[in-house]
């Protein structure tokens, strides 16, 4: 049995798909300019405190996902084979294109809010790829008839803020989390992730996964069998919601509420780990073995789900109830980046889950005072359905040498 199919079938939580009451989270947004975007929002978020920012974020991420799909087509032949490339130019163009596109869109509407993101333009210029990025961004941006220039795109990529020890407000973007998945083929997941931090707190997030395969609604016929893609949104106090990427502009298709799964026994949960780490490197391995064979799980084993590639697709799995836990160990030789986690944190929390370091504390977004790019979680990061969180922390604490 396919492991992702297994994760859907084994979820003990019944999803809440009926309309939810409106949440009383009203206020003005962060100095928005007048704008027009195409995307509707889940009803609880339509009048929420940061509804304007959320609407703009959904629209920008949707455009970015479509940019990724278009660029990715250049990697494959008509029969699905990967074209031979001598460099990483397609994924580079998509990565920088997404960052430029989202920065441009948000910069028009909220020019005072800086962007913390993965890329800078120096690499792009040194590899003579600026024109290629301008071309892909021009097709997707809401430029209102004004032709984009190299200077526009480079400036958007390098749009930064200055930070200090005080709480700050800024966007956090991972243009493509899971670039290896981007070039692997249609089945490998990758995510565009965008979050807004206000005065040090994550208040909203949008994740777009262009090749996510969900359950096809009964109302759709066989002609929709090949549809894929999901947009997941979260707003503080309003829950986490998802909608198929092909349905995003169809107001007759409702958003679905996302909830974490209901597993309460550690050994019954479904786990995700980083591709660069092994189960044996994690403290839970002292209590449980692991297997990817869902049809033959031993009494002292847990199920590991393959969710290539990157961190954000693991958060998406937990927030959607397809996985119970994502655990990542911090390593001295590799800095954990904020864009690999910020949007996932609010999506999981608003779906009923929990995210902490291995001491059980919230992630400190201001640990990197100057740039807000790095996280330094003691031990590592634990993402769970909440029900399993405390017991897993106790197992980790019993192996106290793993927490620094």
UniProtKB/TrEMBL annotation:
It comes from Smallanthus sonchifolius. This is Uncharacterized protein.
